[in-house]
Hints:
Elements: E1 11-13, E2 23-25, H1 32-37, H2 39-69, E3 74-75, H3 76-85, E4 90-93, H4 97-102, E5 109-110, E6 129-132, H5 137-148, E7 154-158, H6 160-163
Parallel strand pairs: 3-7, 4-5, 4-6, 6-7
Antiparallel strand pairs: 1-2
Amino acid sequence: MPKKDKPAAAYRLSGQADRQASEEPLEAIGSVSNLTQSPWLGHKALLLVGLLIVTSFVLIACAKTTAVSEEVDWTAQQLADKLAAGDAFRLIDVREPDEYMAGHILGAELMPLGRLTEYLDQLKPDEVIAVICRSGNRSQQAVRLLKQHGYTRVHNVTGGMSAWRGPVEIRSGQ
């Protein structure tokens, strides 16, 4: 007879007629009755389900973050195409005033990198912002700074004004 403190499915009788029946541990781990009776496997299953749920939430959060941040650089040609199409966005030039005066894209707003935080109240965190400089280095720093302040739809114009082939506005020193 099986022991009373152990589940019956965990043991089998030897079935020897000439001796008293003895109990041997069931060796077939794959049997359905053995799996359902094991508290260890029940805990493992719960842990696995919990891990799958947590992983799902992490993947969903990452997907949402990626979709919101739109971390895509624009080339000078893409910027020209968006301007020609009349797409709505702010174009921020983070060069110094003398560089800006020497030639900038029509409609670009001067906000030098060194003083960019002074202009944050003029920008909306949810608007699309393109940032340009001479070569793309300062504008990349500006993009990082804006993202640290909660601006999510910010794009660096790679190559900057050096790659720009469109018209520029030149202002004389005032």
